[in-house]
From TrEMBL:
It comes from Rehaibacterium terrae. Belongs to the TatA/E family. Part of the twin-arginine translocation (Tat) system that transports large folded proteins containing a characteristic twin-arginine motif in their signal peptide across membranes. TatA could form the protein-conducting channel of the Tat system. It is found in: Cell membrane. This is Sec-independent protein translocase protein TatA. The Tat system comprises two distinct complexes: a TatABC complex, containing multiple copies of TatA, TatB and TatC subunits, and a separate TatA complex, containing only TatA subunits. Substrates initially bind to the TatABC complex, which probably triggers association of the separate TatA complex to form the active translocon. The gene is tatA. Residues 40-77 are annotated as: Disordered. GO terms for biological process: protein transport by the Tat complex. The keyword Metal-binding does not apply. Keywords: Cell membrane, Membrane, Protein transport, Translocation, Transmembrane, Transmembrane helix, Transport. The chain crosses the membrane at residues 6-22. GO terms for cellular component: TAT protein transport complex. GO terms for molecular function: protein transmembrane transporter activity. Its main location: membrane.
Length: 77
């Protein structure tokens, strides 16, 4: 009763395809891929928002807001 051979896996694959059909399996695969891409995108956006480097705009800060801040700083000197 060791590990399964290739024939065992082929029989399991054939049963799964017969039960669910190729169209449903394709839809499940594409949904899973979309979920993984969305998760990765969310993780990247979360990392960018936490440690913004100097010179980079933070979340919610637009180009106009940062230039307005710079103009205020220049007018003080």
């Amino acid at each position: 009763m060791g590990s399964f051979s290739i024939w065992h896996w082929l029989v399991v694959l054939a049963v799964v395809v017969l039960l669910f059909g190729t169209k449903k399996l394709r839809n499940v695969g594409s949904d899973l891929g979309a979920a993984i891409r969305s998760f990765r995108k969310g993780m990247q956006e979360g990392d960018e928002g936490e440690g913004s480097a100097p010179g980079k705009l933070g979340k919610g800060q637009s180009e106009d807001a940062s230039s307005a801040d710079r103009q205020r700083d220049d007018s003080k000197h």
